[in-house]
Write a structure and sequence with these properties.
The complex is a heterodimer of chains A (about 240) and B (about 500). Chain A is built from 12 helices and no strands. With about 240 residues, chain A is mostly helical. Chain A has one domain: Fumarate Reductase Cytochrome B subunit. In chain B, strand 1, helix 13 (about 245-260) and strand 2 form a beta-alpha-beta unit. The chains are: A mainly alpha (about 240), B mainly alpha (about 500).
């Protein structure tokens, strides 16, 4: 069983990294032939960095739009961030000081995460417009994430898993040293779904993570009059026709 | 024109987000382009036999050339943020008029043929086959989008439905399923020089008529020159400005401003159109071909500057794309932005103190201002972000005593489209135009009741035509829509102006 998880996580990591890299490469390689920032837009690069920062950290556009979705979405993502940072302790020995400091917050952030997800699920089911646009996969993502969060909270607060053993498994795996995992049900469910998430990430709507950074309506500078912007294929067309 | 068979929505204090009602607008599609108009634009004359393969090829081609399209197709998480932001959804209740609903019509096909999940688990991710019915659905709903970008303001990833609509229309054009209104107009422009098909002599005639009118009115010989070589400024303005009301009053205003500023200017019969419908159909090639006319006119006439008249989508193509499509403009005077908006020009002259106004000339009105969607969310004026909101208001306030804004959630970057933008300003789409105007009509009616507003000023030929047509549906008067430069024109005091008709002024003169 432990060997299965060792192999699963190696494969999942490869799929996640290679899949995402391919997607990022595709986005980076595809030109944006026209200046289409949503205006008013920053007039220099520093402004664009700030715009993306506000978008990534505070979900600025969503905040403008609908406060409930913003609240639940932001709770979930912020909770997830703290939880992920806290989980770094299972991959390093000794544990970095910042990660040690996050520990108390990271433990409870799991609740924020699950509450946020539950809010999003309720919204998806009960708001007719959101229900209309939802596919089975949209519900499944929320369910998967809720179960991941819930099983994690179970291990933290109800049926403790042997985290020392888990840690030695993952630290070992980083050096391709296949160890053993405690065979607890919450842990099995937790790890299985995390691996599934990693496997599906590059093929799903989770691509919104790299997508935001490549979105021309958010990452372009408003300077079309000052600086001529032209895509390679458009330049080729121009050279051919003139 | 057959009187359309539909009910105009009722105006309430607020625009309530409607309950989703499927299929309310499925019946509406614009007229299909005639073969000639398609071939003029290098599209197949009619729907090709192998449309299935060619549509998918085109989608594949577009996503490899437009990063926005690729990112937008992938990134949507179906959060629902955009679902209540489109004026066409608010006015029709049809979920395929929600921005994400509209995007999904293309996205489900993208997923089916180009993604792992959609190829192997189509039901799970909402992927669907491309069928003949899909084409009709695209044709219907992608011509119920005015490409106003309001949804992109509220999307956490900036997904812009306008980009998706443009791509879908280009796919449809590439298989011979184009829209009559847009394609006919582009063909006309390529042949004659403007969307309305007004030939040079007709323009000359109109402009001479304007000169006479202005001289009769003011006693000052304001010129409206056409094809005058060696002029400093080439004015490119939407062709509706040559004859439609209230557009032409704006054109009269531009001429008076140029006259008072003491600059030489000219219109061009070859490039007698500011609007560029190539953008509506998402065709870079056609948009470029239209834009190159302006470059050629500027070179042929030997001007130093290019100024654009009041037109929303035109200003988008001019401000954001002209340098890309038809640049570089290194043969023009580098001291001025290329191109400039007429409002930038006028505001600059006002700040320099070169223009004198009698603001009381507009005292019969209480004004408000409709931010045109494409000016607001796709362009800028001046050198600060948001200048596109401030400069028009500054100019209005410089020439009018009574100005109030409409509700803050309906102006600025949140402005609602007039309902007729993006290639929808055609009688065969009257139903969606009227219903899509609901949010703006509501805001205007509230401003009338609460603030005593009598007139709404606009800076877009489409907005002006659309409101003229749609205001009466909502029980308001078509004359309530005015051009910003019409207000300028009415208030400006020309040097040497004959004041006889102005009672107050002549009394003062008598006393002096």
């Amino acid at each position: 069983m432990s060997l299965f998880f060792s192999l699963l996580f190696i494969v999942a990591t490869l799929v996640l990294v290679i899949g995402l890299a391919r997607k990022i490469f595709q986005y980076a390689r595809t030109p944006a032939p026209l200046k289409i920032p949503t205006m008013p837009a920053p007039i220099n690069q520093a402004g664009v960095v700030m715009r993306l920062f506000r978008e990534v950290v505070f979900f600025e556009s969503l905040f403008k739009s609908t406060k409930w979705t913003w609240l639940f979405g932001w709770m979930f993502h912020l909770g997830l961030l703290l939880v992920l940072l806290r989980h770094l302790r299972y991959f390093m020995d000794p544990v970095w000081l910042p990660i040690q400091l996050i520990q108390p917050f990271g433990k409870y952030a799991g609740f924020a995460m699950v509450i946020g997800l539950a809010g999003l699920l309720v919204r998806r089911i009960f708001v007719d417009r959101v229900r209309y646009i939802s596919s089975p996969s949209d519900y499944l993502w929320l369910v998967i994430l809720i179960v991941i969060g819930f099983s994690g909270l179970m291990m933290s607060f109800v049926v403790h898993t042997d985290v020392v053993m888990v840690k030695s498994f993952f630290v070992g795996l980083l050096g391709f040293d296949f160890g053993t995992l405690p065979l607890d049900l919450p842990l099995m469910v937790h790890l299985l779904l995390v691996a599934l998430l990693m496997l599906l990430f590059p093929f799903s709507k989770l691509l919104h993570v790299p997508g935001l950074f490549f979105s021309p309506s958010r990452n372009q500078v408003d300077n079309p009059r000052e600086k001529r912007h032209i895509a390679p294929w458009a330049k080729a067309m121009e050279d051919q026709q003139s | 024109m057959a009187k359309a068979d539909f009910e105009t929505p009722e105006l309430h204090e607020y625009v309530d987000v409607p309950a989703v009602t499927e299929g309310t607008m499925a019946h509406l599609s614009p007229f299909v382009a005639k073969p000639d108009h398609n071939t003029d634009l290098n599209f197949p004359p009619q729907l090709v036999e192998d449309w299935h393969a060619r549509a998918l090829d085109k989608l594949d081609d577009l996503r490899s050339r437009y990063r926005g399209l690729q990112v937008y197709l992938d990134s949507c998480v179906k959060c629902g943020s955009c679902t209540d932001k489109c004026h066409y959804f608010l006015g029709t209740k049809d979920p395929k008029n929600m921005p994400v609903g509209r995007q999904d019509l293309l996205r489900k096909v993208y997923r089916r043929y180009f993604t792992f999940a959609g190829k192997y688990f189509p039901k799970l991710v909402g992927a669907e086959d491309l069928t003949r019915d899909t084409l009709d659905e695209w044709y219907s709903y992608y011509h119920q989008c005015s490409q106003c970008r309001r949804c992109s303001v509220f999307c956490p990833y900036g997904i812009d439905t306008a980009e998706i609509s443009m791509a879908a229309r280009e796919i449809l054009d590439s298989i011979g399923y184009g829209q009559k209104y847009c394609n006919e107009i582009i063909a006309k422009l390529n042949k004659i020089g403007n969307n309305l098909g007004l030939p040079g002599p007709a323009l000359q005639d109109t402009l001479e008529g304007l000169e006479e009118d202005v001289e009769d009115d003011t006693g000052v010989a304001v010129k409206y020159p056409l094809d005058q070589k060696g002029a400093d400024i080439l004015l490119v303005t939407p062709s509706a400005d040559f004859f439609a009301e209230p557009h032409v009053d704006g054109l009269i205003g531009y001429g008076k401003v140029f006259h008072e500023a003491g600059v030489s200017w000219t219109l061009s019969s070859y490039a007698s159109e500011a609007a560029n419908f190539g953008m509506f159909i998402g065709s870079y090639e056609n948009m470029r071909r239209v834009s190159l006319r302006i470059r050629k006119a500027a070179l042929d006439l030997g001007v130093k500057r290019i100024v654009f008249g009041e037109c929303g989508h035109a200003w988008r193509v001019a401000y954001s794309f002209l340098n890309t499509l038809a640049g570089p403009f290194d043969f023009l005077d580098p001291d001025y932005p290329v191109p400039q908006h007429i409002l930038e020009f006028t505001w600059d002259q006002i700040q320099k103190g070169n223009l004198k106004f009698d603001k009381s000339a507009n005292d019969d009105k209480v004004l408000t201002f409709h931010d045109s969607c494409n000016v607001a969310r796709a362009t800028r004026m001046g050198n600060k972000p948001g200048g596109q909101f401030e400069i028009p208001r500054n100019v209005i306030k410089a020439v009018c005593n009574n100005y109030v804004d409409m509700h803050h959630e309906t102006i600025g970057e949140r402005t609602f489209c007039c309902g007729g933008g993006g290639g929808l300003l055609t009688d065969d789409l009257m139903e969606i135009r009227v219903k899509g105007a609901l949010p703006r009509m509501t805001a205007l009616r509230n401003a009338m009741e609460e603030e005593g507003v009598t007139h709404m000023a606009a800076i877009c030929a489409i907005c002006k035509s659309q409101f003229t047509k749609v205001l009466p549906y909502y029980g308001m008067d078509m004359d309530q829509i005015v051009s910003v430069h019409q207000l300028v024109s009415d208030a400006i005091i020309l040097t040497g102006q004959d004041d006889d008709e102005d009672g107050e002024e002549s009394e003062n003169e008598g006393e002096a």
